[in-house]
Amino acid sequence: MAATSNLEVSTHVYKEVDGLSLTLDVFRPINTSASDAGPQVALIHYHGGFLVIGEKTTFPPSWLINACVRRGWIYITPAYRLLPEAQGVDVVADALDAAKWVTESLSTRLIVAGSSAGGLLALSVATQLTRPLAVLSVYGMLDLTSTRYIEQGTMLMGNPPIPDVRPILDQIEAAKKDAVLDGYPFPSHPPTDKRMLWIAVAHQEAIYPDLLTGHAGLAGMIRKGGIDAIPTNLRHLFPVAFALRGDLPPTAFLHGDDDNAIHVDQSIKVAEALNKLGVKVTCEIVPGKGHGFDVREIPATVDIESDTNTNLPMYKSLRSILAFLDGVVN
Protein backbone atom coordinates (compact mmCIF):
# COMPACT_ATOMS: atom_id res chain seq x y z
CA MET A 1 0.00 0.00 0.00
CA ALA A 2 1.16 3.53 -0.67
CA ALA A 3 2.55 5.54 2.22
CA THR A 4 -0.45 6.61 4.26
CA SER A 5 1.39 9.68 5.55
CA ASN A 6 0.50 11.29 2.23
CA LEU A 7 -3.11 10.18 2.40
CA GLU A 8 -6.28 10.84 4.30
CA VAL A 9 -8.10 7.50 4.49
CA SER A 10 -11.81 7.23 5.25
CA THR A 11 -14.48 4.55 4.99
CA HIS A 12 -18.04 5.18 3.84
CA VAL A 13 -21.20 3.13 3.44
CA TYR A 14 -22.40 3.45 -0.13
CA LYS A 15 -25.25 0.94 0.04
CA GLU A 16 -27.21 -1.25 2.45
CA VAL A 17 -28.57 -4.49 1.05
CA ASP A 18 -29.04 -8.14 2.07
CA GLY A 19 -28.28 -7.25 5.68
CA LEU A 20 -24.91 -5.82 4.65
CA SER A 21 -23.50 -2.33 4.84
CA LEU A 22 -21.40 -2.17 1.70
CA THR A 23 -18.45 0.14 2.21
CA LEU A 24 -15.73 1.75 0.18
CA ASP A 25 -12.38 3.11 1.31
CA VAL A 26 -11.37 6.55 0.07
CA PHE A 27 -7.70 7.51 -0.16
CA ARG A 28 -7.48 11.27 -0.58
CA PRO A 29 -4.06 12.87 -1.11
CA ILE A 30 -3.03 15.48 1.45
CA ASN A 31 -1.59 18.86 0.46
CA THR A 32 -2.66 18.63 -3.15
CA SER A 33 -3.19 21.69 -5.28
CA ALA A 34 -5.48 19.80 -7.64
CA SER A 35 -8.52 21.74 -6.40
CA ASP A 36 -6.97 24.92 -7.82
CA ALA A 37 -7.15 23.43 -11.29
CA GLY A 38 -10.73 22.18 -11.00
CA PRO A 39 -12.40 19.08 -9.55
CA GLN A 40 -10.07 16.28 -8.52
CA VAL A 41 -9.92 13.15 -10.59
CA ALA A 42 -11.23 10.06 -8.79
CA LEU A 43 -10.17 6.52 -9.66
CA ILE A 44 -12.33 3.64 -8.46
CA HIS A 45 -10.69 0.21 -8.51
CA TYR A 46 -12.61 -3.08 -8.23
CA HIS A 47 -10.70 -5.94 -6.64
CA GLY A 48 -10.24 -9.34 -8.23
CA GLY A 49 -11.06 -12.86 -7.04
CA PHE A 50 -13.18 -14.32 -9.89
CA LEU A 51 -16.19 -12.59 -8.22
CA VAL A 52 -16.11 -15.42 -5.64
CA ILE A 53 -13.31 -14.44 -3.25
CA GLY A 54 -11.49 -11.26 -2.28
CA GLU A 55 -12.07 -8.09 -0.32
CA LYS A 56 -11.73 -4.39 -1.04
CA THR A 57 -8.24 -4.62 0.49
CA THR A 58 -7.21 -7.67 -1.57
CA PHE A 59 -3.91 -7.19 -3.42
CA PRO A 60 -3.95 -3.39 -3.58
CA PRO A 61 -2.17 -2.15 -6.73
CA SER A 62 0.38 0.03 -4.95
CA TRP A 63 1.85 1.32 -8.21
CA LEU A 64 -1.57 2.70 -9.13
CA ILE A 65 -2.25 4.12 -5.67
CA ASN A 66 1.17 5.80 -5.69
CA ALA A 67 0.40 7.25 -9.12
CA CYS A 68 -2.87 8.67 -7.80
CA VAL A 69 -1.07 10.27 -4.86
CA ARG A 70 1.52 11.82 -7.19
CA ARG A 71 -1.23 13.33 -9.34
CA GLY A 72 -3.53 14.44 -6.55
CA TRP A 73 -6.19 11.94 -7.60
CA ILE A 74 -8.57 10.29 -5.15
CA TYR A 75 -8.33 6.48 -5.03
CA ILE A 76 -11.39 4.43 -4.05
CA THR A 77 -11.75 0.69 -3.44
CA PRO A 78 -15.25 -0.72 -2.81
CA ALA A 79 -16.57 -3.95 -1.37
CA TYR A 80 -19.20 -5.79 -3.39
CA ARG A 81 -21.32 -8.89 -2.96
CA LEU A 82 -19.82 -12.20 -4.05
CA LEU A 83 -20.96 -15.20 -6.04
CA PRO A 84 -22.55 -17.68 -5.56
CA GLU A 85 -24.52 -16.43 -2.53
CA ALA A 86 -25.33 -13.34 -4.59
CA GLN A 87 -25.99 -13.34 -8.33
CA GLY A 88 -24.16 -11.48 -11.04
CA VAL A 89 -26.90 -8.89 -11.33
CA ASP A 90 -26.28 -8.06 -7.66
CA VAL A 91 -22.51 -7.85 -8.09
CA VAL A 92 -22.71 -5.56 -11.11
CA ALA A 93 -25.37 -3.44 -9.41
CA ASP A 94 -23.02 -2.96 -6.45
CA ALA A 95 -20.16 -1.96 -8.73
CA LEU A 96 -22.37 0.56 -10.50
CA ASP A 97 -23.79 1.95 -7.25
CA ALA A 98 -20.29 2.40 -5.84
CA ALA A 99 -19.27 4.37 -8.92
CA LYS A 100 -22.43 6.49 -8.70
CA TRP A 101 -21.66 7.22 -5.03
CA VAL A 102 -18.24 8.48 -6.08
CA THR A 103 -19.64 10.75 -8.79
CA GLU A 104 -22.24 12.14 -6.40
CA SER A 105 -20.01 12.49 -3.32
CA LEU A 106 -16.45 13.01 -4.55
CA SER A 107 -16.00 13.87 -8.21
CA THR A 108 -17.66 13.45 -11.59
CA ARG A 109 -14.19 13.15 -13.15
CA LEU A 110 -14.00 9.40 -12.74
CA ILE A 111 -11.63 6.72 -14.02
CA VAL A 112 -13.11 3.23 -13.70
CA ALA A 113 -10.53 0.49 -13.09
CA GLY A 114 -10.40 -3.13 -12.05
CA SER A 115 -8.04 -6.08 -11.82
CA SER A 116 -8.87 -9.65 -12.86
CA ALA A 117 -12.62 -10.11 -12.29
CA GLY A 118 -12.65 -6.45 -11.31
CA GLY A 119 -11.88 -5.71 -14.95
CA LEU A 120 -15.24 -7.19 -15.91
CA LEU A 121 -16.93 -4.93 -13.36
CA ALA A 122 -15.04 -1.88 -14.61
CA LEU A 123 -16.04 -2.52 -18.21
CA SER A 124 -19.64 -3.25 -17.27
CA VAL A 125 -19.85 -0.05 -15.22
CA ALA A 126 -18.33 1.97 -18.07
CA THR A 127 -21.08 0.78 -20.42
CA GLN A 128 -23.82 1.88 -17.98
CA LEU A 129 -22.48 4.98 -16.21
CA THR A 130 -22.64 8.48 -17.65
CA ARG A 131 -19.38 8.58 -19.58
CA PRO A 132 -16.36 8.20 -17.28
CA LEU A 133 -13.03 9.77 -18.18
CA ALA A 134 -11.38 6.42 -18.88
CA VAL A 135 -11.39 2.68 -18.19
CA LEU A 136 -8.44 0.60 -16.99
CA SER A 137 -8.53 -3.19 -17.14
CA VAL A 138 -5.63 -5.02 -15.50
CA TYR A 139 -5.51 -8.65 -16.69
CA GLY A 140 -9.28 -8.48 -16.83
CA MET A 141 -11.67 -11.43 -17.02
CA LEU A 142 -13.70 -9.62 -19.66
CA ASP A 143 -15.63 -12.02 -21.90
CA LEU A 144 -17.40 -14.92 -20.24
CA THR A 145 -18.80 -16.03 -23.59
CA SER A 146 -15.33 -16.90 -24.89
CA THR A 147 -14.24 -20.51 -25.40
CA ARG A 148 -12.45 -20.78 -22.06
CA TYR A 149 -15.70 -20.25 -20.18
CA ILE A 150 -18.09 -22.33 -22.29
CA GLU A 151 -15.95 -25.33 -23.31
CA GLN A 152 -15.23 -27.95 -20.66
CA GLY A 153 -11.75 -29.08 -19.80
CA THR A 154 -9.79 -25.86 -19.24
CA MET A 155 -8.02 -26.09 -15.91
CA LEU A 156 -7.36 -23.08 -13.71
CA MET A 157 -3.71 -22.01 -13.54
CA GLY A 158 -2.51 -25.24 -15.11
CA ASN A 159 -3.64 -27.38 -12.19
CA PRO A 160 -4.57 -31.04 -12.77
CA PRO A 161 -8.24 -31.85 -13.31
CA ILE A 162 -10.46 -32.50 -10.33
CA PRO A 163 -11.71 -36.08 -10.88
CA ASP A 164 -14.94 -35.96 -8.88
CA VAL A 165 -16.64 -32.59 -9.26
CA ARG A 166 -20.13 -33.59 -8.11
CA PRO A 167 -19.60 -32.84 -4.40
CA ILE A 168 -18.13 -29.44 -5.26
CA LEU A 169 -20.97 -28.60 -7.62
CA ASP A 170 -23.36 -29.53 -4.81
CA GLN A 171 -21.50 -27.17 -2.47
CA ILE A 172 -21.87 -24.33 -4.96
CA GLU A 173 -25.59 -24.98 -5.29
CA ALA A 174 -26.08 -25.17 -1.52
CA ALA A 175 -24.16 -21.93 -0.99
CA LYS A 176 -26.76 -20.03 -3.00
CA LYS A 177 -29.03 -20.35 0.04
CA ASP A 178 -26.41 -19.07 2.50
CA ALA A 179 -26.00 -15.55 3.83
CA VAL A 180 -24.59 -13.17 1.26
CA LEU A 181 -20.94 -12.14 1.63
CA ASP A 182 -19.25 -8.89 0.65
CA GLY A 183 -15.74 -10.19 1.18
CA TYR A 184 -13.72 -13.35 1.63
CA PRO A 185 -10.02 -13.12 2.51
CA PHE A 186 -7.69 -14.52 -0.10
CA PRO A 187 -6.85 -17.99 1.23
CA SER A 188 -3.42 -18.73 2.65
CA HIS A 189 -3.46 -22.15 0.97
CA PRO A 190 -5.58 -21.87 -2.20
CA PRO A 191 -5.47 -25.57 -3.27
CA THR A 192 -7.46 -26.65 -0.20
CA ASP A 193 -9.77 -23.66 0.13
CA LYS A 194 -13.38 -24.55 -0.68
CA ARG A 195 -14.12 -21.35 -2.60
CA MET A 196 -10.97 -21.74 -4.68
CA LEU A 197 -12.20 -25.25 -5.49
CA TRP A 198 -15.50 -23.73 -6.58
CA ILE A 199 -13.60 -21.42 -8.92
CA ALA A 200 -11.50 -24.29 -10.27
CA VAL A 201 -14.54 -26.45 -10.97
CA ALA A 202 -16.41 -23.55 -12.57
CA HIS A 203 -13.54 -23.31 -15.06
CA GLN A 204 -13.10 -27.05 -15.54
CA GLU A 205 -16.80 -27.69 -16.09
CA ALA A 206 -17.36 -24.45 -18.04
CA ILE A 207 -20.17 -23.14 -15.87
CA TYR A 208 -19.01 -19.57 -15.29
CA PRO A 209 -21.90 -18.09 -17.30
CA ASP A 210 -24.26 -20.23 -15.18
CA LEU A 211 -22.56 -19.12 -11.96
CA LEU A 212 -22.71 -15.47 -12.98
CA THR A 213 -26.34 -15.47 -14.00
CA GLY A 214 -27.93 -18.18 -11.85
CA HIS A 215 -29.20 -19.62 -15.14
CA ALA A 216 -28.35 -23.34 -15.12
CA GLY A 217 -27.10 -24.66 -18.44
CA LEU A 218 -26.46 -21.23 -19.96
CA ALA A 219 -22.87 -22.00 -20.95
CA GLY A 220 -24.05 -25.00 -22.95
CA MET A 221 -26.74 -22.89 -24.58
CA ILE A 222 -24.14 -20.31 -25.60
CA ARG A 223 -21.89 -23.06 -26.91
CA LYS A 224 -24.67 -24.44 -29.09
CA GLY A 225 -26.56 -21.31 -30.07
CA GLY A 226 -24.20 -18.39 -29.60
CA ILE A 227 -24.74 -15.26 -27.54
CA ASP A 228 -28.37 -14.95 -28.63
CA ALA A 229 -29.07 -17.67 -26.06
CA ILE A 230 -28.41 -15.19 -23.26
CA PRO A 231 -31.69 -13.78 -21.88
CA THR A 232 -32.17 -10.08 -22.58
CA ASN A 233 -32.37 -9.15 -18.89
CA LEU A 234 -28.92 -10.68 -18.28
CA ARG A 235 -27.04 -9.24 -21.22
CA HIS A 236 -25.59 -6.32 -19.25
CA LEU A 237 -23.48 -8.94 -17.44
CA PHE A 238 -21.73 -9.65 -20.76
CA PRO A 239 -20.50 -6.22 -21.89
CA VAL A 240 -18.09 -7.58 -24.50
CA ALA A 241 -20.86 -9.50 -26.23
CA PHE A 242 -23.52 -6.80 -26.10
CA ALA A 243 -22.33 -3.37 -24.99
CA LEU A 244 -19.17 -2.41 -26.88
CA ARG A 245 -19.75 0.78 -28.85
CA GLY A 246 -17.87 3.70 -30.31
CA ASP A 247 -18.79 6.24 -27.64
CA LEU A 248 -17.15 4.36 -24.78
CA PRO A 249 -14.38 6.27 -22.98
CA PRO A 250 -10.68 5.78 -23.71
CA THR A 251 -9.71 2.35 -22.44
CA ALA A 252 -6.37 0.92 -21.30
CA PHE A 253 -5.50 -2.76 -21.01
CA LEU A 254 -2.58 -4.27 -19.10
CA HIS A 255 -1.86 -8.01 -19.24
CA GLY A 256 1.05 -10.41 -18.98
CA ASP A 257 1.47 -12.82 -21.87
CA ASP A 258 2.15 -15.75 -19.52
CA ASP A 259 -1.12 -15.47 -17.59
CA ASN A 260 -2.51 -18.95 -16.84
CA ALA A 261 -5.48 -17.67 -14.84
CA ILE A 262 -6.99 -15.31 -17.43
CA HIS A 263 -5.64 -15.65 -20.94
CA VAL A 264 -4.02 -12.58 -22.48
CA ASP A 265 -6.45 -12.85 -25.41
CA GLN A 266 -9.14 -11.51 -23.09
CA SER A 267 -7.41 -8.12 -23.25
CA ILE A 268 -6.09 -8.29 -26.81
CA LYS A 269 -9.41 -9.17 -28.44
CA VAL A 270 -11.43 -6.57 -26.55
CA ALA A 271 -8.81 -3.92 -27.30
CA GLU A 272 -8.99 -4.80 -30.99
CA ALA A 273 -12.78 -4.69 -30.98
CA LEU A 274 -12.88 -1.28 -29.31
CA ASN A 275 -10.22 0.06 -31.64
CA LYS A 276 -12.30 -0.97 -34.66
CA LEU A 277 -15.23 0.92 -33.15
CA GLY A 278 -13.13 4.08 -32.94
CA VAL A 279 -12.51 4.06 -29.19
CA LYS A 280 -9.13 5.40 -28.09
CA VAL A 281 -7.27 2.33 -26.80
CA THR A 282 -3.89 1.29 -25.48
CA CYS A 283 -2.99 -2.33 -24.79
CA GLU A 284 0.23 -3.11 -22.94
CA ILE A 285 1.25 -6.78 -23.08
CA VAL A 286 4.12 -7.54 -20.69
CA PRO A 287 6.43 -10.37 -21.82
CA GLY A 288 6.82 -13.34 -19.51
CA LYS A 289 4.49 -12.08 -16.80
CA GLY A 290 1.65 -13.99 -15.20
CA HIS A 291 -1.49 -13.17 -13.29
CA GLY A 292 -1.06 -10.56 -10.58
CA PHE A 293 2.45 -9.63 -11.63
CA ASP A 294 1.96 -5.97 -10.75
CA VAL A 295 1.12 -6.70 -7.11
CA ARG A 296 3.39 -9.70 -6.61
CA GLU A 297 6.55 -8.26 -8.14
CA ILE A 298 6.46 -4.54 -7.38
CA PRO A 299 7.05 -3.56 -3.74
CA ALA A 300 4.76 -0.86 -2.38
CA THR A 301 7.83 1.27 -1.68
CA VAL A 302 8.89 1.37 -5.34
CA ASP A 303 7.91 4.50 -7.25
CA ILE A 304 7.84 3.25 -10.82
CA GLU A 305 7.92 6.81 -12.15
CA SER A 306 11.06 8.04 -10.42
CA ASP A 307 13.05 5.22 -8.82
CA THR A 308 16.22 3.97 -10.45
CA ASN A 309 16.48 0.43 -11.80
CA THR A 310 12.93 0.49 -13.12
CA ASN A 311 13.70 0.16 -16.81
CA LEU A 312 12.35 -3.37 -17.04
CA PRO A 313 9.58 -3.97 -19.63
CA MET A 314 7.09 -4.35 -16.77
CA TYR A 315 7.80 -0.85 -15.47
CA LYS A 316 7.80 0.65 -18.94
CA SER A 317 4.37 -0.83 -19.59
CA LEU A 318 2.99 0.56 -16.33
CA ARG A 319 4.39 3.99 -17.15
CA SER A 320 2.80 3.79 -20.60
CA ILE A 321 -0.56 3.05 -18.99
CA LEU A 322 -0.18 6.06 -16.70
CA ALA A 323 0.85 8.29 -19.61
CA PHE A 324 -2.30 7.20 -21.45
CA LEU A 325 -4.46 8.11 -18.45
CA ASP A 326 -2.64 11.44 -18.08
CA GLY A 327 -3.37 12.23 -21.70
CA VAL A 328 -7.06 11.54 -21.18
CA VAL A 329 -7.30 13.56 -17.97
CA ASN A 330 -5.34 16.53 -19.27
Automatic annotation (TrEMBL):
Single annotated GO MF: serine-type peptidase activity
Coiled coil: none
Residues passing through the membrane, by range: none
Domain of life: Eukaryota
Assigned keywords, A-Z: Hydrolase
Keyword Hydrolase: yes
Span of domain Alpha/beta hydrolase fold-3: 43-147
Pfam families: Abhydrolase_3, Peptidase_S9
PANTHER family, per the entry: AB HYDROLASE SUPERFAMILY PROTEIN C4A8.06C, ALPHA_BETA HYDROLASE FOLD-3 DOMAIN-CONTAINING PROTEIN
Protein name per UniProt: Alpha/beta-hydrolase
Species annotation: Glonium stellatum
